[in-house]
Amino acid sequence: MTDNKYCVIMAGGIGSRFWPKSRQSRPKQFLDILGTGKSFIRHTYERFAKIVPTENFLVVTNRKYRDLVLEHLPELTPEQVLCEPVGRNTAPCIAYAAYTLQKRNPDAEMIVTPADHLILNEEDFRAIIRECLEFAAAHDALMTVGIKPTRPDTGYGYIQVSAAQPISKVKCFTEKPDLELAQTFLQCGEFVWNSGIFVWKVKSIIEAFAKYLPEHHLLFSGVQRALGTDAEQNIVELAFAECRAISIDYGIMEKADNVYVRCGEFGWSDVGTWGSVYEHTAKDEHGNAIPEKNCYLYDTRLSIVSLPKDKIAVISGLKEYIVVDTDDVLLICPRADEQNIKKFIDDVKYNNGEKHI
Amino acid sequence: MTDNKYCVIMAGGIGSRFWPKSRQSRPKQFLDILGTGKSFIRHTYERFAKIVPTENFLVVTNRKYRDLVLEHLPELTPEQVLCEPVGRNTAPCIAYAAYTLQKRNPDAEMIVTPADHLILNEEDFRAIIRECLEFAAAHDALMTVGIKPTRPDTGYGYIQVSAAQPISKVKCFTEKPDLELAQTFLQCGEFVWNSGIFVWKVKSIIEAFAKYLPEHHLLFSGVQRALGTDAEQNIVELAFAECRAISIDYGIMEKADNVYVRCGEFGWSDVGTWGSVYEHTAKDEHGNAIPEKNCYLYDTRLSIVSLPKDKIAVISGLKEYIVVDTDDVLLICPRADEQNIKKFIDDVKYNNGEKHI
User: Fold this and answer.
1) Which residues of chain A from 296 to 325 reach within 8 Å of chain B, CB to CB?
2) Which sign does the torsion angle of CA B266, B267, B273, B277 carry?
3) Which of A20, A179, B109, B145 is least surrounded by CB atoms within 10 angstroms?
4) Element (H or E) spanning A346, and its range?
5) pLDDT mean by block of 10 residues, chain B; 357 residues
């Protein structure tokens, strides 16, 4: 009997916010930034492998990360790795996976997940995903997983739910709010964080593409017809070259009227910044997050240090700093300035430092 | 015709103050901390090679640095490198060289110099050394080179001169003074810094050893007799095991009555600390000393950065810091705390970090 449940892992990001630890040649999803012993993508695969059979995984990634994906997930066959010629945000990524899956199994039920999130309570998380799968199988529903917010975070999108049930129709999506609005959301109690984890029937999402992103529907229907033919590579190339870069949230979820959210609490974080890594790392008595044991800290507080293996650091007199050392790049930066990392990268690039990016 | 002029380079130090750039396996004298393109010992050799023929150099160093010396000074033969089994301060080091030289040439005139000093105006310096050689050849004199002080430095020893002539008899030696005393010395005008560079006839210094350090005289006379015999190695071992560790200043120069100083100004520094490296390195417009071109500094002032080749650093928000990165150790430390480096080293050692020292 065919298992209709599929898991699509989106793994195309370059994670520049974790530079210099993340690199164009090895972005965040392939790293173990939290020192858990496994990369983010490996954790993601193992998390869903208890629900979805190995052969029903698809990973969508940039072409240049294909070998890295197969290295981290040796259980997969090359046919399970879909390669984007270029990143075009989540809608084209999901379209590529959905139209491919539909050809393989028109009855497919599809989980979509980022490759690089942290989930602490995996059992609870899987119970919720199972509920979503059941609901999506029984309804023409686009399901998203919402997270009960614990603080007025301005780095996440918010979803307003219309009822207090576990599965509720979505009232509206809100992009990253300012602090005041985030505080209002938190107090109001009707808002949850948008985790970017989705569940739906392939049939439902393709209907939504046809309705809300007809241009993408056209291009990826072409991709679907070309799958397995000599033209496949060229048509994929064309689809990504032609299609508009747009997120699935903005392109479909905010517009469709069959969007449902299943709220949960299971220790979730998108681990999007060093600040977030700091939050999720064990601290010493001075509030320093030092995943490695090879730091000698003096008069240093509330800082995070990341070092290459077999390297030691002696650090004196730093308060609230990020210190990230790699083989060819050293970064020392106040935690409050981590949003400048993209500027640093640009400056290094501009000075012919491409090899350090 | 035999040239009686010899140059003894003292190169036994481990330079722990420059850790982690200096290491037990590669101490300061073998480094190019100032980014000049040559190691300190190489500069020292070339400085004196215009006065002294190559075959008249001796280097005294620790046994473990023998190959490094020959690597940096390939002009020398292995017989020109005297190996101390263990460091015992400058008096035994100089005795080993003097008693060895006396056997090779009883009329030897001897320049003694540390391997790791900076001298900016080498022409003026050599003119002074030539004067010293002439004076020492004509008199039974223990000559030392004094530096006209430019600031009340508490890191140097001071010598009080008895007259305003270029070559003057020494009135007294003073160990590193406190700031108040150093200021008095500077105002008084009679005091010069003790550079630790000496000139004398071998005959004169050996007479001084016999008189002021008879124990060392006995041990190194034994070494002299054993030179070239099968017993040489054992006797050297014994002499260093038995002899008291003592500086030539304390053991002889402060006691002898035939000590003369030749004062000069030639841009001298013993480059003893990172602070001193900071002083002698070109600065950017924010007062940062960055010998390498591969630093991206933001909101960073009055700091010094040292990186391995081909590495870049992005540093934000540091004021008056030392950042020294090497392959296996990263040091970040306020400039004001550089005297703590020895403590850092001890802590690393204590935690089984011997390989990082």
Assistant:
1) 296, 298, 307, 310-318, 321, 323, 325
2) negative
3) A179
4) helix A341-350
5) 89 87 93 91 98 98 96 98 96 98 97 96 96 96 95 91 88 90 92 96 98 98 97 96 96 96 93 89 92 87 93 96 95 94 92 86
